[in-house]
Amino acid sequence: xxxxxxxxxxxxxxxxxxxxxxxxxxxxxxxxxxxxxxxxxxxxxxxxxxxxxxxxxxxxxxxxxxxxxxxxxxxxxxxxxxxxxxxxxxxxxxxxxxxxxxxxxxxxxxxxxxxxxxxxxxxxxxxxxxxxxxxxxxxxxxxxxxxxxxxxxxxxxxxxxxxxxxxxxxxxxxxxxxxxxxxxxxxxxxxxxxxxxxxxxxxxxxxxxxxxxxxxxxxxxxxxxxxxxxxxxxxxxxxxxxxxxxxxxxxx
Length: 252
Known about the structure:
Blueprint: H1 3-6, H2 9-20, H3 26-44, E1 49-51, H4 54-62, E2 66-67, E3 74-77, E4 80-83, H5 84-102, H6 110-117, H7 127-136, H8 151-165, E5 171-175, H9 180-188, E6 213-215, E7 225-227, E8 235-237, E9 247-250
Parallel strand pairs: 2-3, 5-6, 5-9
Antiparallel strand pairs: 1-4, 3-4, 7-8
Helix pairs in contact: 2-3, 6-8, 7-8
């Protein structure tokens, strides 16, 4: 497929519309239109921005339609070119994640629970235990590790710790980019374990009893959300009737 075939009529119309309203002319205008073509096509492919070099950034900023952070149709931030709306989405998400990362909780009786789920390994540092201790006390945690290092097992133990130490009932949703990880976690959940109880989801969301509930029924992390309207990139929480007022985990 050639570059010309990769662009839709909508891409071409969008690029031409903005290029005609720019302050540019000649070769700079043509380059600006080419960048807009790429941006529109990449947006349709699910990307929020395209990479641009220093020379292209100067052309974009000279168009009169872009800025680094103001309410202009285009945003040229460092070496990235965004449509203003999608730059705003990313900037808002970054603020929200930053706020979550600063939130901490006081988990009661955590040490005793940690020792039970992560027995002593002598003088060797138990990084799973360290990760779990950090995760239980924070609103946002990211646990990384190679295949087979115990990430999913650690997540399950974190869920158990949350349920045991929380001063209020929790609804926990567990999802992943694909359905594989939630299915793996669900297969490891013992329905008779006092630490966690898995119950099927009703048509309207989580069952009210028991209050300790882990929902592994989401086929993917996208299923936890739903579009605000058709053909919209904006999402709302609780897609598919799910209640996300408790804790959510994404197993990559």
